Every structure is written in C-alpha cells, then in structure tokens.
Amino acid sequence: MNYLTTRIGENYGNTSALAVEAGLQAQLSKELSIGAHIYNPNRAKVAAFNDERIPTIMRIGLNYTFSEKVFVVAETQKDIDYPANFKAGVEYRVVEVLYLRAGVSTGPVLNTFGFGLNLKQFRLDIASSYHSVLGYSPHVSLTYNVSK
Amino acid sequence: MRWCSILLLLMPLYAIGQERNDSDPQKTYIIEQRIEIIAELLEEEDIDFTTLFDDLSYFYEHPINLNGKVQEDLEQLLLLTDLQINNLLSHVEKNGRLLTIYELQAIDGYDLATIRNILPFVKVSSDIDSPHITFKEMMKNGKNELFIRYSRVLEEQEGFAPLCEDGTCNEDSILAASPNKRYLGDPTRLYTRYRFKYRNNVSWGITADKDAGEELFTGSQPNGFDFYSAHLFLKGFGKVKALAIGDYHAQFGQGLTFWSGLGFGKSSYVMTVKKNAIGLRPYTASDENLFMRGGAITLGFGHVEVTAMYSNKKIDANISVPDSLDNTEGTTVTSFQLTGLHATPGEIFDKDAIGETHMGGHIAYKKRQLNIGATAIRTEYDANLERSLQEYNQFDFNSNTNTLLGLDYNWVVGNFNLFGEASRSESGGMAFLNGALISLDPRLAFSLVQRNYQKDYQSQYSTAFADGSRNANEHGLFIGMEAKPAKNWTLAAYFDRFRSNWLRFQVDAPSNGYDGMAQLTYRPSKKLSMYGRIRHRVKPQNTTEDIEGIDFVTTKEQTNYRYNITYKVSDQVQLRNRIEMVDFKQGNNPTEKGYIAYQDVIYKALGKPYSFTFRYALFDTDSYNSRIYSYENDVLYYFSIPAYYFRGTRTYLTLRYKVVRGVDVWLRYSQWFYNNRTTISSGLNEIQGNTKSEFRAQVRFKF
After folding, report:
1. Is the peptide bond before A108 cis (omega within 30 degrees of 0)?
2. B36: part of which helix (H) or strand (E)?
C-alpha cells in the first residue's frame, strides 16, 4: 500500500492519494516460474481536474532458469494510458562474485547492461540503460545484508 | 550453432561414414533444405546461391574426417560455431582420435540437433587422408559436370511484341527514332556451365549465360553468349593454400573491408551473425558484375597466411562521352549498372563501359583460438566518376580511386567467441564492427553485433552486418538469443536497433528504427516440424503526403505473422503449409494488409527415378508495401524468392527425372494469376493480361 503525496509550491497546494499494489508468484516447474503484479487497481484519483489519476499498471513475467549460472526473464507491462511494453533480460553468473546482466525493452526502445558484485554482506549493482536520443541512464544500488 | 536449428534431417544413421554415391537422391534434398531456410530469410528476389550449394555438395560427397586437420573445412561448412569447432579440436587433442561419430555427444556444445545437422557432411575414420595428387589419379577420380538450362516466359512481353499491330506503320522508322523500344533478342534465357572437380583440390570450368532479350551469336553478340566466366582453382598444394586464375571470389575478415559474393546477415538464425571468411574461392555463378577476374594466391608459412590478389575487368556504367575529341581523359561515368542485362541498344552501349581494377591482399596470423588479420585493397576505375549526388548521398564514393585498409580479429576465449573488424576508406571514413557469440548454457546462446559505420565510409565490396543495404551511415546494436527450454522446443529471438546520423534515401533527416523477431519451433519427431514467427519492424521514411517544403519523416511499421508446418505423411510424400499475414502502416496512412496461404506437396521416393514438388498458393495483399516473400523450389542450382503481391494465385510444378546414370532432367512450369490486374509488370516487360507463366528445363550430365 502506498500513500502518495504531491506538493507544488506557489499557492498550488498539495494533494494525496492511496494506491494499492499486489503481486503473485508461482513456481510452475523446477525451471519455470511466473509472476504477476498489479499496481493501483483502485484507480486512485489525484485531482478532479481532468480526472487525473495515479496510473494503473499491470505486469506479467516469466523466469526461466537454465542452470545455476543462467536465467532469462521476460515481461510485458501495460500502463492503462500507454502502449504495452515488452522487456526481456538475462543474468549470467560468470564467477561466484560476479554477475553480468543485459536486456532490452520496446517502449521506449532501450538496451540495458549491468553487472553485480556479491561480496559477503555487501551487494553492489551497477546498470545503465541506453536510449538512442537520451543516451545513457546509469543506476547504482548498494545493499548491506545485516544477518549473514 | 550456425543454422543449428534447421529442420531435422531425414538421413538414416547407418549411412554415416560411408562414401556417398553420386546419385543419392537424399543429397539434393538435404542441401536444398538448408539453402531454402537461409534463402527465405534474406527476402530478396535474385540471389546466387551456386557457391553455397557447391560447398555443401562437395562435403556431402567427401565427408570431413573429424580426426584430420579439419578446422578450415568445418568453418567452410557453416554449420558449426567456432566454439563448437574449438571444443571438438580440444576434445581430440585431450582424448585422442574419435572412435565413433557418437562420441560427438560427449563434447560440450553438441546437442542432438547440431549433430544431426552435420552428420551428412562428416565422418570418423582412423586413416587421415593426405591428398597425394598425381595427374593420372586426378583424371581418373575427377568429376565432370555439364549443365544446360533453358527458361522462357510464355506470354508476350512488350519488348518482344511487334511495334506495328496493324501493319500500317514502319517498324524501322519507329526503332530509328527510339531504339530502346524493343529487345534485340528473343525471350529465351540460356545458361550453360561446365566444371571439372577433383576433390576439394582442383577445379576448372566455364560458364556462359544469356538473359532474356539478349541476342545469341548475332548482332550485338558476335561471340555467342552475353556473359562468359572461366576459372582454374587449386587448393591445398603444400605452401600454396589456394591459387585462383580467372574468375574468383575474395572474402576477408567480417566483410567490412572486402568481401565479394554473398554475405549472410540478419535472420531468424540468430547465431549466424558472424562471418567465416574463406579467403579465395572459385567463381562459377552468373552474376555479371560482382566478382573478381584476374589472379590470386594464398601462401601459408606456419601460422601466417598471406593472400595477394589482382583483378581487372570491365563493368557496365552509364557514360557521357565528351563533345571534343581533344579531351583524351574523356570518359565520365554518371552511374553504375548492376543488372547484367544487355537486351537493348542502350544497355549494350553501357556494357563494359569502364575498367575496374582491384589489387591488394590479406595477411593473417592464425592460431586455433586467435586469428588476427589485416586487409589492404586498392581500387581504380579508368574513368571519372561524376554521379550527380543529392544531399542524402553526398558522402558516397565519387572519384576514380579508393584505398581500403582493415584489421580483423576472431578470438575464442572460454565460452565466448569475440570477433570484429575495423576499416578505413580513402575518404577518411571509418567503420567498426564488434560482435560476440556467447554460449551461456548448452541450451542457451546469445549473439551480439555492435556496429558504427560512418557516413563517409566508402567501399564497393563490403557485405558486413547491417540493417541497411550498405555499410555506411549506420550505428546499431543487435542482440540475438537462441534458447532450448524443453526437448523439441526452440525459441529464437533478436532485437536490433539502428540509427543514421545523416539522411538516407527517402529519409530527409537523421533517423532511427528497430527490428524485432521471435520464433518458436516445435519439432516433436523427424516427421513433423512447425514454427510460428512474429517480426516487427519500425523504420523511418519521408511522408507520402504531398506537402510544401521539406518532407517530414514518418515511421513505417511492418508486422509479419507466420505459421509454417512441414510433415511427412508417408515415406514418399511430404506436405508443407504456410499462412502468413502482414500489417504495414506508414505515418497516418491506413494500414495495408497482406495475406498468403499455400500448400506444398513434395514427392521423393528412394529408388524411383522421378520426384516432384508442387505448390498452390493464394495471396491477397492491399499493395506492394504489404508484399510477402516466399522461397520456391526450383530446378537444381536455381533459386528464387519472389514477392507475392496484389491478389491472385501462384502454382508451380517442378519435376526431376533421372534418365540414366549420369543424366538428370528437370522440368518446371509456373504461373502467376492475378484476378485484380489487367496488365502485369511495366515497361518492356509489360504483359497484356492477368497471367504470367514460365517454363524452365534443365539437363545435367555427369561423367
């Protein structure tokens, strides 16, 4: 459950809405699992003007594990207001600590690359997407796992 | 895993390792199956697959002994990836010679489908045959082959029709006024080819070709045929790895700097994005412009191989002759002619108008896991090239000389195969290609190709990986995947995106686009195979609307849906069905739709002297934009992938009959029928009517 609030200065004031999200995941076989995720099925309203609402998004994806080292994911994502987007990606564990990842998406058309390092309690992930007009958009995440 | 998901072979296992009989009816079937799949993906009307057919045919008759020095042969076979070849060689090195062909299953990267694919072309034998060639042996075991092919369109085409229907006018005066109104010759096409071959080591031959409308032994063709080609080719004589005299092909690196002849690119065989350059090879096909004529040699010194080549031939071009005789540097070329047709006085005038010279070579350092090469080619024309260029192609080649320099590499490291080439033309334009074939799991492989071809990179003979038809003004990234998630199922997919920083033909702005494909194949048994495929392409093109000022760029969106099924109903009869639909939409124009469905019947019986293939197809497309390409079975060595468009039916029957041992005859009749046309084609090829039929006959003598 998300409580979302937007505030715009200069006398515009603020508004808020409550959006719900839920997901399901099932292991169909040793190798194949499926997941579904719905964001904001309650179509939370932000403002009465233009009937502005929080986007409702549904995602369904598959994960296929080829071996301990390799898995492939594919997903389709539909925002109620925009054309559907398809995404696919692969993760390959080169050695114990190093993961390589790559993927594509169709709406917008993006290529994505990244790698992850698994160092005991720390996990470092670096990734970037590439758009032919907007260029590279890098992401970094650092995770510290307390109980390991 | 090149081509590795090709339909299962129907080749029985017991035949493996035995010398094949020439008249084996399975041979053409197996080879055609492979070519058909490749051909279909290319979506072009006329492609010369003769060389490819020759290669496969040779290896079928002389299977590669996997215990021998096989690396080059296996690369030429095009059915295995470098990773697989490397794994095989490592396996033999580590464990000694293979004892049986079944040992392949124990080698990394060899799944059943791959093994089935290569089985007809390989053997396992303990005696390593080193070719010891004496002239006597060569004449005794060499093979001679003579082909004669005749084709003709049965309906009368405009260019062959009488100019005066009612006889009241004077034909001569009409022709004097406009000499290009009629073809000079008759509508027959004739092709003959003679070739001698001794194993893979010696080949010589001559090819002669006459296209429709060209004269034969008369008028403009006093020498008989319009096109002749001859070659002498030697391979594997000690330090002389290859020697070519006459007509030949030269192919280096990834085809970015220099590659004459056919090069495969993007297809649903996502692992075929890498090129394996053979270096020199004989030329036996009938394309009249794109080959080398002269001499070339490859010498091997340990790990180093040096190729030197020289070619000088006349090519067709539109020329403008200067008014003044004083100007000796006279000939000016306004465009090249690549059709090879010489059927009107205008075309005859353009024939062999200018000389084209290539000289240069390639030097390679070859280790099993690492190849590094360098190419240098100098090209000269003996005329001034002065094409009138537009804004979009102002960076194209337009002088009389070009020098290309290239560096290429191919490196197998672990389960990665990295490859690439960098190249520079005389204009200063650069081009780069880098790629990788990655085998992450026996059931999962990826391919990557990144390219960056600058707008002023100029090359006449390059066929490197690209979305467009030329290796210039394109930046792109291709990602392909081939997965075998379950037994009998294969999923192949690719995603390719590309960008042009400069204008293109009919695209008046920098632009970008993408091309995505997914194909799921289900092959539960040797008798049944089916696949479904979706391909979606988005490309830029100028608006078709009539607007003032500069045309703005719209997107062309094309989606193809295909279902294909092949099944054997008995030992003799194989059936094939296909349904394909296409949606084409440009900008705000309405969607144009296309549809085709067909039934193929293929009859081939072991032990019967005859076999045939039959097709009945029904097609209905709104426009030429929504056309659908489909491969057609034809007489041996002839390949066509016509575009089906408008509304109508297509039928053909190809019959093969083995008269006696060594003499085979093929007959083919095909017909287009359009129910919403009253004329077909245009210009000199126009037919008054709604049917177009073609008859083809071919005979082969083997002795």
Report:
1. yes
2. helix B25-42
ipTM of the complex: 0.79
CA distances from B559 to A127, B89, B587 (A): 31, 43, 15
Q: What is the pTM of this model?
A: 0.85
Mean pLDDT of B529-551: 89
Q: pLDDT-derived band of residue B238, with 50, 70 and 90 as boundaries?
A: confident
Cβ contact (<8 Å) for B514 and A111?
no
The CA angle B471-B474-B480, to the nearest 5 degrees, is 90
Contact B260, B285 (CB under 8 A): no
DSSP-based three-state secondary structure for B218: coil
Return the beta strands (E) in B337-415 as ranges.
354-366, 370-381, 384-385, 401-413
Residues 6 or more apart whose Cβ sits within 8 Å of residue B297: B240, B242, B243, B244, B280, B307, B308, B309
Six token digits for residue B163: 């100019």
- Picking from B413, B416, B439, B440 by the largest number of A CB atoms within 10 A of its own CB, the best residue to mutate is B440
CA–CA min distance B441, chain A (Å): 7
List residues of B whose CB lies inside 8 A of any A CB.
440-441, 443-444, 446, 477, 479, 481, 483, 485, 493, 495, 497, 499, 512, 514, 516
pLDDT tens per residue across span B190-229: 999 999 988 778 999 999 999 988 888 888 888 889 999 9
Residue owning tokens 């997407």: A129
Contacts A102 to B, Cβ<8 Å? 446, 479
Computed over every residue of chain B, the mean pLDDT equals 85
Residue spans of beta strands (DSSP E) within B99-224: 122-123, 143-153, 188-198, 202-210
Nearest to B483 among A72, A106, A132 (CB): A72
Min distance A131 CA to chain B CA atoms (Å): 10
Cα B577 to Cα B574: distance, rounded to the nearest angstrom: 10
How far apart are the C-alpha atoms of B410 and B392, rounded to whole Å?
34
Distances (CA, A) of B227 to A19, B190, B195, B495: 75, 11, 16, 41
